[in-house]
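Long-time lurker. I teach an intro course on protein structure, and each term I like to show students one example going from raw sequence to a predicted 3D structure in token notation. This year I'd like something fresh instead of my usual example. Would anyone be willing to generate the tokens for the chain below so I can use it in lecture? Attribution to the forum is fine with me.
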Amino acid sequence: MTHRLTAETAARFAEIALGHVRQEYPHKLDHVMDGPEDVAGPSALHPIFHGSFDWHSCVHGYWLLMRVRRLFPDLPVRERIEALFEDMLTPAKVAGELAYLDRAYSGGFERPYGWAWLLALHREAQRQDDPAWAHALAPLAAAFAQRFSAFLPKLTYPIRTGTHFNTAFALVLALDWADENDAGLAGLIRTRARDYYSGDRDCQAWEPSGDDFLSPALAEAMCMKGVLENQAFEIWFAGFLPRLDSGEPATLFEPARVSDRSDGKIAHLDGLNLSRAWCWRSLGRAGAAEAHLDASLPHVAGDYMGEHWLATFAMLALEEDALTPR
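-- Reply from a regular --
Happy to contribute to a lecture. Here you go:
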């Protein structure tokens, strides 16, 4: 079976996201307290992105809703999506999110995963037929772009873990935004990606780890696909994963097994299967993509530990043009 994004599936994903982007609790804060006055709940700290268990999941929940609205404009759920945006994506509430970035010890807040998803959200807002949401989000996008511009020159080594700190995945999302909005940042991303990864050869792909939701190997390949010209990428990719045609490394072709979907870290492995499917499709390996989708697409809802974020990665995997490097 070949999986595709249909209107029915998109509507289901939208319903899932609408069910949690304003659900404040349970919540896992990324928050440094400098004194007793800093003890506050999620909505007091984050006027917009206080749902979905954590800040970054809320951001990409909004991205999913934006994407569904644009790709399937005739869905009945569109009216509820627009009502949410009108209520939440306002200049005043964006100012509240910006104010959080000015707090002491906020420099590492959501770095780099949340930064990248905020840029992806703004880029999707720019593709909408209503410019108000992109205009409202623009100052927040500019703030995170500035953080990328300051951070990448001093990030001597890429972070290759399969979780939120992964450098390559963040650069894929950030480059899609920067190519349209910030030529300086786009150039910096391309330079740093080449610095980090151009010499990598014969990747062993010792993955997954126990709580990965990204493939370090395939995220790197996606990043390099975005920064290299076609022929240069093909040469690099052939050296990076030289035995793909023989099904090696086998670990990249075998979907991860999820033993307990109520455990938030172990549930990450469903996200790994979905994000690998997205990568495999972009890299021209449809069979591997379908196997990973078969393993985890049925599990995007059912337990909140996965439900608050997995539909976004299912969207990436099913909608082939979603954040896919060219």
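Some talking points for your students: The chain is about 55% helix and 0% strand. The chain has a mean pLDDT of 97.
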